[in-house]
Amino acid sequence: MSDDPDFHDGRNMFAQWVKRGLHARFGSVMHEQVPDTLLRLLDADGPEEGQAASSGHS
Q1: Which of 21, 16, 18, 15 is nearest to 1 (CA)?
Q2: For 47, which of 7, 8, 29, 51 could close a Cys bridge (C-beta 3.0–4.6 Å)?
Q3: Are 40 and 46 in contact (CB under 8 A)?
Q4: CA gyration radius, the chain
Q5: What digits encode the pLDDT tens for the residues 5-41?
Q6: Residue 26: what pLDDT?
Q7: CB–CB of 7/1 below 8 Å?
Q8: Please, which residues have CB within 8 angstroms of residue 15's CB and are 6 or more apart in sequence?
């Protein structure tokens, strides 16, 4: 059992139940490969310095 005092007095029991349910249903998603298009979006640089100021946004 957990050493967390909240777990022993029941406050964390619901969170543990939800966590186990989510892992049972969606755990396999964690092992799927991330699509290349999403990786490119995440790797894309944001606007260059000064670009936001010159576009009229304050």
Answers
A1: 16
A2: 51
A3: no
A4: 22
A5: 655 667 788 889 999 999 999 999 888 998 999 888 9
A6: 92
A7: yes
A8: none
Predicted TM-score (pTM) of this structure: 0.40
Predicted local distance difference test score (pLDDT) of residue 47: 59
Angstrom CA distances, 48 to 27, 36, 37, 41, stand at: 38, 23, 21, 16
**CA 35 to chain centroid:** 16
Q: Is 38 helix (H, G, I), strand (E, B) or coil?
A: helix
- Cβ-count burial 1-13 (b if 16+ within 10 Å, e if not): eeeeeeeeeeeee
